[in-house]
Predict the structure.
Amino acid sequence: MSGILQGLRLALKVTLRRSSVFLSISTVVALSTVITLALLAAVYPQTSQPLLERMLRPVEGLGVSVGPGDARLCWALVGGVEAPVLVADSNSEAWRVLGVKPLVEGEAVLGSLLASKIGLGVGDTVEVEVGGLKFNVRVASVKVFNSFLDTVMVAGLELPEGLNCINYRVVVYDRAAVASAASSEAVGALTQWYALSLVALAIASTVVSLKAYRDLEGEVVELEAQGLRRLYVALAVSLSLASASAIGFSYGFVLYSIAVSTLGSHMGVYLPPPPLTQEVTLRALVAPSTLVLVSSLAVGVALWRFGGLQRG
Amino acid sequence: MEVWRVTARVARVLGLSLLILTCTSIAVYSAVAAYIEASLVNITNPPLNPPSRDGLVVLSLYSGFALTPLTGLVSRDVGARLEGLEGVYVWFEVTTPALANGKPVVVRGVDRVWAELYKPRVVQGTSFNEELPARAWVGVRLADELGVKPGDVVVVKPLFTSIEAPLLVAGILDVPQPYTYEVLVPLELGFKLRGSHDPSVVRVAYDPARVSESLIIQALRADSRVPPGAARVLSALVYGGYVRLEDPVRAQRYYVERLGVPYEVIVVAALIANVVVSLLNVVPAWLIYSLRGRSLAVLVEQGVSPRTLKLSLTLLTVPLVAISSIAGVLLAELLEPPRLLGYPIELELGGYLLIAHVAIQATLYTLGLVTGGIGES
């Protein structure tokens, strides 16, 4: 074991003495920094979720439900105009959200926009046709809901099951979900940066390894004369480049933190530091380092086993 | 003359495989850099403003107080100030970020004037009719993504109100951007989904041959201290900048700049990103000295000066590097663009940015050629 470590130590000393190897390491550091920045840009919007939830507090609302709901929205002909009609049981929770007392059979509350479209007012009676069934309802009031419900007739009707209606359920309406979905969409695109940078890293690592092995040819011959195997040089180069990738990760993380805090102070708002989760660590640290290690070793094996591009 | 003779010999020494390796690696690095650069510099420019129509200039007046042009509200009075001006069309649009069948989009309320001016072509279903309640028309590009057709229900979850809206899709419209990426509803329904009575944007269209810009500015009661030929757009009121009314790109930049990030900083950050990625270009240049070191050293022994040799290498490979760099930019443009609320961010690097991109890539490669040592390996 100590023999292996000594061999590796010697190979590292010889390898790092070459200025071109050192510059190759700098190259991998630079690209790993870019990869980390790309990944952090992609995952950073997640950290703003608590901030969004503070700004856009959840409120009680109505959400479309796939299963059974608290209310039903059916398309109907209201006075000859196609419009949505909302019905709910008298003990439904939906009445609380609607801000309307449970309606008795044959009564309706018209949303303000629908009322103006069909020209109806309080006390008017209108024929409502739902799924072939006809009802006469009396407009008890016209209400400004200041939401989609302004285009709806809320009616006290007993509608049979089986109609093609949409179920509504009383929900905690998460407005932050709308904002975070938008940021998730941007994240999807930013992840392309990351994927593209990984491809570039694989190519860069191959090219720099190729150069390093070619430059080290003289040293390898000397080391072989001392009884050391070529594998140690390949391992030394690969480990150096993998470490360079890890250094690039730390640079990227620090740079991103500095950028975020500078921007936050400039904007006068608190922007949390980038997250250092297990997933981020795996994708920004472990994946690039492993990629560099494997590609560099593969180049070494290919070059020394098959001769590679040697023509010089 | 000697340089060209040496260049021919260097070309034979390098060989096709090494040139292909160099060009491929640089094209990939260039694509990475171009994608990052283009995403950054175009992030301030999602297509929020419609094009001019029938020779009319279209102005867009946004709120200056809102975080984004899509979430702000403008007083109706702004539109009223322009009423009665002959040859001037004024209409309101109201926007709300929302989820449509779970996808983040913008729902926009539009009216009859908009429909008359933009004459949307009906791809499927019925034409836009603001009298129909609880209906939606979907821009053709968004319809492709949502996979909806007339008769389907699109469930809209608006940001500002707490009732999800199941809307019947009445038609698919072929309209210019930004509308082609949006769910379009009658203006009144748009106000209800936004939970407001005020529009998000007041559009003004006028024929420049009949109505002068200064007349519009005067009617808008914009700041009288504006420089000649410019106007302080209402959206820019609170952050003190002057932008030409018909320059929507700059108006959008003001929204970003107001948050403390000047556009120039974004451009510089994009160029720095390119420089960082382009550092990789040094390696293919060094690789030439590593892989062809002995052959190049022989040329030096035969009397070719190292300076001439490096000049020949530069003459031979830098044009190829420039072409590879442009190929990388084209490759980046083929990638899926980043999207913000359904609007694609263009991945084009035009004009001086393209020149800067190629120049940086070529310069760092040349740096590698200059700093590399002949016969080092």
Q: What stands out?
A: Residues 2-43+263-371 of chain B form one domain. Residues 226-243 of chain B have pLDDT under 50 and may be disordered. The CA atoms of residues 153 and 168 of chain B lie 5 Å apart.
